Amino acid sequence: MAHSPSVSDIQILVLDDEPDLRTLYELTLLREGYQVEAAGTVQEAWDLLNARRFDLVITDMRLPDGSGIDLLKGVRAQQRRERCIVITAYGSAENAVESLKAGAFDYLTKPVDLKQFRAVVAAAARGTQAAGAGFSASTSAPLSDGGSGHGNKGEQALARMAGDSAAMRMVRERIVKVARSMAPVMVRGESGTGKELVANALHANSHRKDGPWIAVNCGAIPENLLEAEFFGAKKGAYTGAAQDREGFFQAAHGGTLFLDEIGDLPLAMQAKLLRAIQERCVRPLGGNQEESVDVRIVSATHKDLPAEVAAGRFRQDLYYRLNVIDIDIPPLRERPEDLPALCQALLGRIARDSGQPERHVTASTVARLAGLSLQGNVRELENILHRALALSDGETLELSDPTHESGSASMPLSGHVPLGAGTPSSDTVSTPRQPLPGDLQGYLDEKERQILVRALRETGFNRTLAAKLLGLTLRQIRYRIARLKIDAPDMQGDEADD
């Protein structure tokens, strides 16, 4: 078993050309129990680095004979093990992003808050302790712990992303590579590609794997509750707030906060989120004091955020903060060779969840599935397999027509649904002997889609009128239209938001 170093084993190099600040950082770290060396120039730092090994390097950005970025790039070029924390000037978002892209573990802004300084150093130190306990210093891949299940968490998370295509191998390799830093990651991909699986694998392969994992669907939270949900609320902050409650940031302290469908956040909330990320502190609704939070942000979207920025619907400064590192997940149509492995993995999971015996997918079934558009990607594939499994007998799964397994309409369960072309009639009557749906959520989604389509048609595609007809707010109907991927010509009603 590898030795897990204590705080007193951690060797830290502090690099700053201002003697007072250098002494302040050094004394703060010594009081925490770390071993510390200090340097005032890049050359002095390299002399120390060439003479011995360190665990952490804390460097100012601007130095008399170079920059912290130069030192950081040199450490990476030599494939050294030191984790780097960069100190940047206040408000210099460009330098902060540049340092993270160059491989910094994290950054701090001047004037440095010593409480935040200690927290960031502790987080980086925990990472070096994880490296000693379960990660190889010469490779980025997690080591097996002999099957105990605890240290193997990262490998298990990666294995859930079935498929051995070149594209998926690249995704897994990138996850392992970027999981080690604190840099924010943006996961991009079409709906149903598995963005949350990727985000969870990032968490499971990081030094935060034993900390909390909080996943949030930004598009599913009513706008008037966003601030309380994200930052918490004090007792009496609003009607019904009978006690203090923590928000997503507080719940994710010491771990990872996954913000799914980040593109759905309204602009006002985007500004508050940006400040929380920059300042690393939040103020609960109704509170007077800010609370420090230590979270790593992973976000995801199926939207084209650069286009959203250009249209004024997404803040450019927030986009730059979130998109320090990006991971793109290819749609299923671009990796058909993954279908057999995906089918088998999904069938195994469905069987375990439902208590049914596991079935095997045949080559003919895979061929039929490959002929479908599968615009809903892996989620749509899972829905199809759910229905087929419920209606199949024997040990193998055969699909005569995957889109008609439970009497559903001949259309994908997910993906964009154009009105007027292949949309099911709203007055379809189910016979009493129709089999129970093998995928209840997919069945309910289809019924909801039919009702929305009918309401939109009857109101001339005016969302405001359709919402009133169904007893919904405009925001609620827009959310449902987006979630169910309903396309319609010249829809109106955005001017009367609730």
UniProtKB/TrEMBL annotation:
Task: Alphabetically list the UniProt keywords.
Answer: ATP-binding, Nucleotide-binding, Phosphoprotein, Transcription, Transcription regulation
Determine the domain of life of the protein's source. Bacteria
Pfam families, A to Z: AAA_lid_14, HTH_8, Response_reg, Sigma54_activat
- What are the transmembrane regions? none
Q: Does the keyword Transcription regulation apply?
A: yes
| Region feature (Disordered) | 134-154, 395-441
Please list the residue ranges that the record marks as compositionally biased, kind Polar residues: 423-433
Per its record, how is this protein called by name? Sigma-54-dependent Fis family transcriptional regulator
PANTHER family, alphabetically?
RESPONSE REGULATOR PROTEIN PILR, TRANSCRIPTIONAL REGULATORY PROTEIN
| Domain spans labelled Sigma-54 factor interaction | 161-390
Q: Report the PROSITE patterns cross-referenced here.
A: RESPONSE_REGULATORY, SIGMA54_INTERACT_1, SIGMA54_INTERACT_2, SIGMA54_INTERACT_4
Gene3D superfamilies reported for this sequence: 1.10.8.60, 3.40.50.2300, Homeodomain-like, P-loop containing nucleotide triphosphate hydrolases
Q: Which residues carry this modification: 4-aspartylphosphate?
A: D60
**An example molecular function term from Gene Ontology annotations:** ATP binding
Residues covered by the Response regulatory domain: 11-125
Please list the GO biological process terms of this entry: phosphorelay signal transduction system; regulation of DNA-templated transcription
